[in-house]
Design a protein that fits this description.
Layout: H1 17-23, E1 36-41, E2 44-54, E3 57-66, E4 73-74, E5 76-77, E6 80-81, E7 85-89, H2 101-105
Antiparallel strand pairs: 1-2, 2-3, 3-4, 3-7, 5-6
């Protein structure tokens, strides 16, 4: 596997996957190779296709970057690009939520 890119993931806040599993422990399973996980980076939804899972961290490729205002896919945000190999700690994983109707009415630049 290629060397990974360091990412300062956004805090998932109310959309934290791990907070969800704290109240639903029977539903938790470690990510397996091929799992698609979500996180936030610079406000964007980022999907990571896991290739490995080691000590609470998934390692995989960026499979999608989604604009928070339009829901459209983009090829990059800041220095993060599709295909980059990244590490995604469990505490940074986030539930996906669609852009709100308010956001669609007031789009911002990506």
């Amino acid at each position: 596997m290629n060397r990974h890119k360091h990412v300062n993931w956004d805090d998932p806040g109310l959309h934290s996957v791990m907070a969800f599993f704290e109240s639903h422990p029977d539903d938790y399973r470690e990510p397996a190779p091929g799992s698609v996980l979500s996180a936030r980076y610079s406000g964007h939804v980022v999907r990571v296709k896991a290739e490995a899972y080691v000590d609470g961290t998934s390692i995989g490729n960026i499979a999608a970057i989604i604009s928070p205002t339009t829901g459209e896919r983009v090829s990059s945000v800041n220095d993060l690009r599709l295909g980059d190999v990244v590490r995604l700690p469990d505490d940074k994983r986030a539930m996906e939520v669609p852009p709100s109707e308010d956001d669609k009415d007031n789009p911002q630049d990506d």
